[in-house]
């Protein structure tokens, strides 16, 4: 009987404490079950489908994705001109945050002009290989934080 009374008193005192946070108060994000680093790592590896690591590498230092050949038929001379191109994901480990944030959700600039000899650059740009993830600022910050602090 005494044990029941003691247990009841302990439980009652727990409910009486002011540490219980009403649902209407803001919750401190730093007390989350996942750290900013872990959240960033999760997003880096799978933000919404294809992870950043698939193209930029597990270390975010970029890597070659593919080499390809593009042939142009010159109508005036009936000659074929071949271009050997490489699609390379850039190093994002040492990019400033402003540039990183801007590039993550950016769209193609349809007005961007290329010189006649920039065939590979134009093809890669028009292919728009970088997926659009529609990330919010907190997600971009978490990915950037992870990249900057990865071992």
Can you describe this structure?
With 151 residues, the protein is of the alpha+beta class. Residues 11-24 have low confidence and may be disordered. The longest helix has 15 residues, at 2-16. It has one domain (29-149). Helix content is 40%, strand content 15%. Helix 2 crosses helix 6 and helix 4 (97-104) packs across helix 6 (137-149). InterPro entries: Cyt_c-like_dom, Cyt_c-like_dom_sf. GO terms for molecular function: electron transfer activity; heme binding; metal ion binding. Residues 35-151 form the Cytochrome c domain.
Features:
151 residues, two-stranded antiparallel ribbon, 6 helices, 40% helix, 15% strand, iron, heme
User: Cα-atom Rg, whole angstroms?
Assistant: 26 Å
Q: What order do the strands of the largest sheet run in, or round the barrel if closed? A: 1-2
- The total domain count is 1
- Coarse structural class: alpha+beta
Mean pLDDT: 80
Give the SSE order as H and E letters.
HHHEEHHH
Content of β-strand: 15-25%
**The biggest beta sheet, please?**
2 strands, antiparallel
Distance between the termini: 57 Å
Q: Give the number of DSSP strands.
A: 2
Helix content: 25-40%
Q: Which consecutive residue ranges, at least 5 long each, have pLDDT under 50?
A: 11-24
User: Which term fits the overall shape?
Assistant: elongated
Individual helix count: 6
What is the strand and helix layout of this fold?
Layout: H1 2-16, H2 36-45, H3 52-56, E1 63-74, E2 79-89, H4 97-104, H5 119-127, H6 137-149
Antiparallel strand pairs: 1-2
Helix pairs in contact: 2-6, 4-6
């Amino acid at each position: 009987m005494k044990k029941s009374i003691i247990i009841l008193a302990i439980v009652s005192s727990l409910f009486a404490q002011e540490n219980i946070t009403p649902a209407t108060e803001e919750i401190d994000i730093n007390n989350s079950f996942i750290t900013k680093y872990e959240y960033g790592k999760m997003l880096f590896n799978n933000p919404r489908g294809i992870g950043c690591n698939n193209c930029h590498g597990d270390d975010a230092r970029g890597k070659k994705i593919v080499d390809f050949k593009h042939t142009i038929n010159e109508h005036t001379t009936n000659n074929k001109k071949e271009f050997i191109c490489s699609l390379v994901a850039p190093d994002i480990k040492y990019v400033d945050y402003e540039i990183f944030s801007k590039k993550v959700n950016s769209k193609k600039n349809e007005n961007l002009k290329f010189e006649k000899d920039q065939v590979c650059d134009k093809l890669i740009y028009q292919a728009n290989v970088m997926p659009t993830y529609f990330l919010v600022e907190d997600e971009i910050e978490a990915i950037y934080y992870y990249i900057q602090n990865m071992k």
